[in-house]
Every structure is written in C-alpha cells, then in structure tokens.
Amino acid sequence: MATIRDVAEKAGVTVTTVSRVLNNRGYISEKTRKKVYEAMKELNYQPNELARSLYRRKSYLIGLLIPSVSHPFFAELTSYIEYYAYQNDYKILLCNSLQDVEKEKDYINMLKRHQVDGIIIGSHTLKTEQYLNVNLPIVAIDRYFSEKIPYVASDNYNGGVLATKLLIQNGCRKIAHISGPLILNTPANNRYKAFMDVVKEHNIENVVVETKLNVFDTDEYKKLIIKLFTDHPDIDGVFASSDLIAATIINAAREIGKEVPKDLKIVGYDDISIAKTIVPPLTTIRQPIEEMAKKTIEIILDQIDGKEVSIENVLPITLVERESV
Fold first, then answer.
1. Please, which residues bridge with residue 96 across strands?
2. Which residues form a coiled coil (predicted)?
3. Which end of the chain is more exposed for a tag (fewer CB within 10 A), N or C?
4. Where do the structural domains in the chain lie, given as residue ranges?
C-alpha cells in the first residue's frame, strides 16, 4: 500500500508539500498540486482520513437524525441536506430513529464516537437536556428544544391560516384538521393553533384528530380517516398536516363514496413531489424544503466555525392551488 512518502517521491516534492495539498493549507502552485494528484492516482494512494481529521481538527462529517427516510418529506429534505453538505466538502451520516428513544440514544452516541462535527436533528424522542449534553453544534428541523438550540422551520402558523381560510372561502361548513401528535412541542403545532383561531373566528363547526406518535404508516392513517368520516359523515373539508395524510384521504374518499372536490375539499401541507401527481392534484401549503435544507447546513457550518447564529429561523410558505379544493 502506497504511503505519503511514496507520493512525495513520485511527485518530486517533500512530504510536507503533499500534506499541504491534501489538507488544502498554505500556498501551492497549480503545477505542483497537479503533480501530487497525478502521483496519488498512479499509486492508488488513499489518504488516512482519521489522521487528516486529527490534523485539521475536523472530521468533515455531519450526523443527520430523522424519524424515517421512507417518509416523502424527510426523503426530499435528506436529499437536499446531503447536496448542500457535499457542496461544502462535508459528508452525511444518516440515522433513522423511527422515533425510538433507545435507538436515538444509540445513534447519538455512535455519531459522537465517529467525531462528527455537528448533528442535524429532525427527530424528537429524547428530553431537551439530553440534546444539550451532546456538546456538539446542533440544528433542529421543525423542532423546538430550547433557546440554546437553533431551529429551522416554515411559517407553520401562516400556512394553517391560509389552508383553513381557503376551505371556508370555498363553502366548507364542517372542517376537520388531522394533525400530528400535539403532545410534542414542535413549530408544526402552529398549524393546529392557526386552524383553531380561524374556525373560531368564522364560527365554523370543526373536528380535530391527532395521528399517533411514532407512526408514519398510510394504513394507520386510513383507519383513522375512515373512522373520522364514519363518526362525522357531514365533514366537507379537511386540512391535513401533511401531503401524505392528504393523499390518503383522497384514496379513502373513493371508498366511502365522496368525490373530491365536489363533496370533500382537501388542503395538504408540504408540497412534496406526489402532491402534483395524485388525482386530483393536491392543493397544499408549500414548505420551502430545499431552502430549509440549505439554511440548516449554513447554520451548522457557522456553528462549527464558531460563529454566532440565530436561534429562530422561520422561512415563508406558499399556498399552491390545484384541484382538491
């Protein structure tokens, strides 16, 4: 196996020069840099990443902890986070917590052992103190932990207002809101708060149903939705807290004989890729998923570099009107 000394000898430079090229430190002419890279290629030299990280005091690794990459929202978010991390020479270690407390603890310990430079958290099973004790830069996505941990979210309250008002403006007189677990202290709960404020203001009959904690299963969503319409067959509008739930409602509506949007109007939240492909195409609140990912990477890198960052980072949403309302 080739060593750094072999590369230096092949390129006709010193070991220090090869080290500077590898770590991008100090001035190196383009001609010298090219000679070093050509020597590395010919010798099939693989740098010792552990040694490099100790030298640079950075691993160039970021942990990403999410509930499940199978969920369309987290899948898209993860894709963008990986893209913007890579643009900044960082790699992502992906951890699916499945909202399991012990699994999340294990993953955080694993990330610390791998000396990641920071952790991005889109899950929320542990107590706030346990995240604060990580002693690494942390950014939360759509999660509020404390005034010490910065978070990135969309304008959930305004999204809830726009969604609920649209249903009312289109003639809905009994509206359901299917929310996430409200026991969690997350910015997403502002969708529920906005819904309640608007229906009370307009004196609209309403029903609120919470999804189960730790469940992102369309079969479970469908059972919940069928029960909702069995108990309240006169519901004529639904604001769903995610596009995945909204798509499941459209599917369930066919089974119970409701036509969308004639008998039932639906607004989702996220604007993931399936929103425009289901039938009818879904009216939804668009979260700026790419911008959220980019902002998350900017904040974690600023923290790694010792810069001050804003704790609250709320990005604007957009109402996207299609054919479900």
1. 66
2. none
3. N
4. 4-56, 61-153+290-315, 156-287
What are the two backbone dihedrals, phi and then psi, of residue 70, each rounded to the nearest 5 degrees?
Answer: -75, -20
What is the assigned CATH class of domain 61-153+290-315? alpha beta
Rounded CA gap, 201 and 220, in Å? Answer: 32
In the DSSP assignment, the letter for residue 261 is T
- Cβ–Cβ < 8 Å for 141, 151: yes
pTM over 0.85: no
List, in sequence order, every residue forming a beta bridge with 176; answer none if it has no partner. 207, 238
Query: Helix or strand or coil: residue 178?
Result: strand
Q: Do domains 4-56 and 156-287 have the same CATH topology?
A: no
pLDDT of 214: 58
Contact 214, 135 (CB under 8 A): no
3-state secondary structure of 282: coil
Contacts of 291 (CB under 8 A, 6+ apart): 315
Model confidence over 286-296: pLDDT tens digits? 999 999 999 99
The CATH number of domain 156-287, selected from 3.40.50.720, 3.40.50.1980, 3.30.499.10, 3.40.50.2300: 3.40.50.2300
pLDDT at residue 26 is higher than 80 = no
